[in-house]
Amino acid sequence: MTASEGEVRRRADRLRAEIRRHDHLYHVENRPEISDGAYDRLFRELQAIEEEFPHLLTPDSPTQRVGADPLSELPVVRHVVPMLSLDSSETEEDLRRFDERVRKAVDGPVEYLVEPKLDGSSLEVVYVDGVLDRAVTRGNGVEGEGVTENARTIPSVPLRLRADRDPLPIPSLLAVRGEVLMYLSSFEELNRGRVEAGLEPYANPRNAAAGALRQLDSRITRTRPLEFFAFDILDVTWTTSATEEGEASAREGTAFDTDEQAVEALRSWGLRLPDRTRKVADIDEAIAYHAEFARDRDDLDYEIDGVVLKLNALAPRDALGSTSHHPRWAFAFKFAPRQEVTRLERITVQVGRTGKLTPLALLRPVEVGGVTVSRASLHNREELERKDVRAGDLVRIQRAGDVIPQVVERVEEPGRARSEAFRMPEECPRCGAAVLEEGPFVVCSNRLGCPAQLERGIEHFVSRGGLDIEGLGSETVALLVGEDLVREPADLFDLTPDDLLKLEGFAETRSQKLAAAIQSARKTELARFIYGLGIPEVGATVARVLAGEFRSLPKLREATPERLEEVEGIGPIMSEKITGFFNDDARAASVDAILSKDFDLIPPPERESRALEGKSFVFTGRLDSITRSEAKKRVGSLGGRVVSSVSSATGYLVRGERAGSKAKKAEELNVPVLDEQAFLRLLEE
Ligand code: IVH
Question: Confidence band (pLDDT; 50, 70, 90) for 400?
């Protein structure tokens, strides 16, 4: 090798180390230190070197996460040690019985590590001399499917263990057990994209994650937003051939005294662990932890189905041993299921803002994970046909986090007569206009002429993310449309207090207040106005991007698809929706009519900023005008970061609707609490 090639090799090594460090900071620690642009430059430099000098390429290079050629089938691979299941129950009694059995077998006080039970897909990852060697699904517990290439594409699976500041040597063999899952926000985004593309949505994040993990084509897996959390060392060995004779000495299992130490070792090797792992001194504390998590369950961006208790001391684990099914030193204390079976009473159709007709299942009310559910979406015509559910059928329904309840499947009742299959109407159930078929969707052709579309459109226009008009909720909108006081959105701005007095429930003060609120909404941020128009695909974040880029509504309306696609984050589908919206005569006329009411639209301030540098944010409850993932992106773009639990170091707690215990904790710790509007204002400032 020439001297200059030696230099190139050193440069490549440095780049790999640097990129690995940033990967870890970003994907595991959630606190990036450099911009995406700076990262891309490092990455491209390394790629260029590896292309020019292919012999310098190493299998654990950070460039090697891109996916490989598809396989014809997944190989069967044996686990290092059997991957057992967990003993589990939903009842406190069973949990206490477990604790008694453990205490009988252990001398002295019993401590447990408790952590969330992640509801994803189980995976074993094996490192040989610190380098990712293979990844295997759980399968039957003894053998699973080799999904190494797929696991390589998951950013939180290290391709090489970290050794930097590590007090422990890198093991010669490390087999780790963990869970692969999809964040709810990513899952919803993925499903939105699939539905838009006319594909079947996934039933839940777990199925989506499991399916992606078992793909034959790892390049497909790479496009799926998978996360890996490690929680258990299946096996660890250090082999040193230090002596002249090459004699090997092995340390196994006994390397750690407690699970706490084992988990710390995993963390120091660069693996990501579940949030909020805690050590508890007795079973009552574990029960309190379970209750706390059950309350926060809807706040999390991932699905959990309970909490796991593990005996912290490792030596007594051997004494307790395992059954063929589960170890006797661990227990899953589960939550009430979020799936229930109930009777579908009737199917009806809802007309949305864009005219989409959505079949809706009206159910015999049933409690699912603490919430009463009486209706569930059936998505679209194709979904309805595929699931073939009919009035009178018994159906399985589920809720997942903030996701609207869904009908999972029909529950067979052999011998029971069924009713006729539901047919989507050929006319809009609300206005009687003809419907159009658009892929899997059925759409009312009447646009703002349809009272349902008009109502939904106005609701969106004046919602919190839009003009934010207080006192103009869906009931009032329905009254205004029903009384023929409003035939298009622009009519809102002609309403006088006297007009409003005619509405049911409106007296003097309320009428004056609402009329004044409507008038003052004419001076608003351009971004809110754009969002409020309800252009398909344009949510709060895109609206802000568009407002920043075009800075005036006429400029946005003039933009060609090519010009729109130059904007970061706007692809061909979105640009087509935007130009399509403004080129539609009826929509354009409606926008013109609104603008004729003398609007003052304020563009966002012009500057790049790192205003939130060093500030951390915790979210709780449901946000209205912005998704969690959008909020996260925007905080990140201003230099801040999002973390999942509140501590005294937390910068802000952002509280949405139905906030959980985090809000209380924030107050106790004197962490500033922002509501959604205050949060959006902060981003603006
Ligand atoms: S400990 C044998 N901890 O739950 C004990 N398992 O129902 C080792 N799971 O397939 C597992 N979250 O993959 C453990 N925090 C957690 C977990 C967890 C999810 C999975 C695990 C297993 C399943 C058993």
Answer: low
Structure tokens at 594: 């609104």
Taking residue 493's Cβ as centre, other Cβ atoms within 10 Å add up to 18
Has 117 been annotated as catalytic? yes
Question: Of all atoms in ligand 1, which is nearest to the CA of residue 85?
Answer: 24
Pocket test for ligand 1, best of 86, 290, 317 (most atoms within 8 A of CB): 86
CB within 8 Å of 618: residues ≥ 6 apart: 642, 643, 644, 645, 646, 650, 652, 653, 654, 662, 666, 671
Q: Using the mean position of ligand 1's atoms as its centre, give its distance from the Cα of residue 85 in Å.
A: 7
**CA-proximal residue: ligand 1, atom 17 (nearest):** 117
Candidates 232, 241, 239; CA nearest to 173 is 239
How far apart are the CA of 231 and the centre of ligand 1, in A? 8
- In three-state secondary structure terms, 351 is strand
CA of 121 to the centre of ligand 1 (A): 9
Give yes or no for residue 202 having a pLDDT over 90.
no
| Mean pLDDT, rounded, for 497-523 | 95
Q: Which amino acid is at 415?
A: G
Confidence of residue 526 (pLDDT cuts 50, 70, 90): very high
Q: For residue 101, what are the contacts with CB-CB under 8 A and spacing of at least 6?
A: 328
Q: 525 and 601 in contact (C-beta within 8 Å)?
A: yes
Query: For the sheet containing 673-675, what is the strand order?
Result: 641-642, 616-620, 652-655, 673-675
pLDDT in tens, 222-277: 999 999 999 999 999 988 644 433 333 444 445 799 999 999 999 999 999 998 99
Q: Which pLDDT belongs to residue 245?
A: 37
Mean pLDDT across 550-554: 95
CA–CA separation, 137 and 151 (whole Å): 10
Q: What is the pLDDT of residues 321-343, one digit of tens each?
A: 998 889 999 999 998 777 889 99
Residues 483-492: what's their mean pLDDT? 96
Q: Provide the 8-state DSSP code for 69.
A: P
In DSSP terms, which residues pair with 173 in a beta bridge?
128, 237
d(CA 285, CA 85): 24
Provide the pLDDT for residue 36: 82
DSSP annotation string for 417-473? ---PPP---SB-TTT--BEEEETTEEEETTGGGSHHHHHHHHHHHTSTTTT--TT--
Ligand 1 atom having least distance to the Cα of 179: 13
- Measure 360 CA to ligand 1 centroid, in angstroms: 36
Residue 392 has pLDDT above 70, yes or no: yes
**pTM, two decimal places:** 0.60
DSSP state of 27: I
Among 117, 387, 632, 665, the active-site one is 117
State in Å: Cα 117 to ligand 1 middle. Answer: 6
Cβ neighbour number for residue 415 with a 10 Å cutoff = 5
Using CB atoms within 10 Å of the CB of residue 217, give its burial: 0 to 12 exposed, 13 to 18 middle, 19+ buried.
middle
Separation between Cα atoms, residue 562 and residue 572, nearest integer Å? 9
Instruction: State mean pLDDT over 524-537.
Output: 94
The partner residues of 371 in beta bridges, in order of sequence, read 368
Ligand 1: residues with CB < 6 A are 84-86, 115, 117-118, 122, 138, 177, 179, 231-232, 274, 308, 327, 330, 332
pLDDT of 598 > 90? The answer is yes
CA 461, CA 476: separation in Å to the nearest integer? 14
Which among 87, 118, 322 is the best mutation to test ligand 1's pocket, defined by most ligand atoms within 8 Å of the CB? 118
Among candidates 29, 5, 285, 312, which has minimal Cα distance to 155?
29
Residue of 114, 117, 312, 317 best suited for mutating to test ligand 1, as the one with most atoms within 8 Å of CB: 117
Average pLDDT over the chain reads 89
